[in-house]
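SAMPLE LOG
Freezer: B-3
Tube label: C17
Construct: single chain, 233 aa
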Amino acid sequence: MQNTAGSNVAQIDRWQKGRQKLFKGVPETGKTIRYLDKDFLVYPNTFWPFTDSQPLVRHFRVRRGESVLDVGTGSGVIAVFACYRGAGRVLAVDINPAALKSASHNAARHGFGATMEVRRSDLFEAVGAEQFDVVTANLPFRDKPAHDVVAQSQWDTDFQTNTRFFADVGRYLKPGGRIYFAHANFGAVAAVRKLAKAAGFSVRALAAASADKAATKTFYAFVMWRAAGAPAA
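STRUCTURE (predicted):
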């Protein structure tokens, strides 16, 4: 899977800028988004549930009672679906206050207020020493300067967020644990694979989905595990 955007970079730029405008234009009372047959509320400046996370959400596995850390939770959709899969504990973290408000609302809306904790954290900064069976992440795909917190949901200045994620994630993963990671064909797929390998993880493509018939916007889910042994799921 390679970055196939090529001459479509300008088109992707326009599309992402348009979505950022939509995120900022949500009424203060929030907007309901239908996603995989369930309703989620987003408040202004929150990344909307979209096709980007569907390959991960449709295919990631959580055994009943397992613990899950969702990094960059946004509206909380991945964390909520982890609860539906039977997770015993879910910690959803994000640096964006609007995302935390949205994710907290959605945890309660779906009846998982006791299972899903929402916490402000710059990646793992506020996670503490806890380790998890599963780590999920839908980080910004593109190495592009982000000028505000909304742009940061799509663009990663100097690829710092992705680099820091892979440098630190191993400390928060239990032995035998696994990572489910979202990305896109217009993002830095090769760089992500390189970072994961350098951190000692094996990578397998799990699923893909396109947001348009021309497949200019195709989204992937990867499963990653410590190179010492393949995951049981």
